[in-house]
Design brief:
The protein is an all-alpha fold and 145 residues long. Among the domains are: 71 residues; 30 residues. The chain has eight helices and no strands. Helix 1 packs across helix 5, helix 2 packs across helix 3 and helix 4 crosses helix 5. The two termini are 58 Å apart. The N terminus is likely disordered.
């Protein structure tokens, strides 16, 4: 696993400084600037005490899991993006780039195979391989047969 530094901000803190409960707190405060704890509790079917924990950034693992389960996978991914500083779209682009380069290599190999003249016959690729039944001049075991 690679630990990356924040790309923004002058303090240079590690991304690990922000946890899921912090990301949930920031989201809730931005979405509901007033009455945040009660609105969190109402939105995610939590107790008011759990809602207060979200506002304070001290939400338990169970509370965070409840919020993600009730808000959905996309919400959970957005929280994780906030925690890690990575964007899922960037990760997909990187993966696609790896597949694209592999596809290009395979395409080049197929092109090379197609460039073999048809006059050499269907076994032209195998013709360049050594014949396993043919004796080698320096192999005494085969010569003794």
């Amino acid at each position: 696993m690679q630990i990356s530094r924040k790309k923004s901000g002058s303090q240079g803190k590690l991304k690990l400084d922000k946890g899921l409960s912090d990301a949930l707190r920031d989201y809730a405060r931005e979405r509901w600037p007033v009455g945040t704890a009660k609105l969190c509790a109402r939105e995610w079917d939590l107790t008011v005490t759990e809602g207060r924990g979200i506002v304070e950034g001290t939400a338990s693992k169970t509370t965070v899991e409840k919020c993600i389960k009730r808000a959905g996978l996309l919400f959970g991914i957005r929280l994780l993006e906030e925690v890690t500083g990575e964007c899922l779209a960037d990760i997909f682009r990187e993966i696609r780039g790896n597949y694209d380069s592999d596809t290009q290599r395979v395409g080049a190999l197929v092109g090379d195979l197609l460039a073999i003249p048809a006059s050499r016959g269907p076994h032209a690729v195998h013709a360049s391989l050594p014949d396993p039944d043919r004796r080698r001049s320096g192999d005494r075991r085969l010569a003794a047969r």
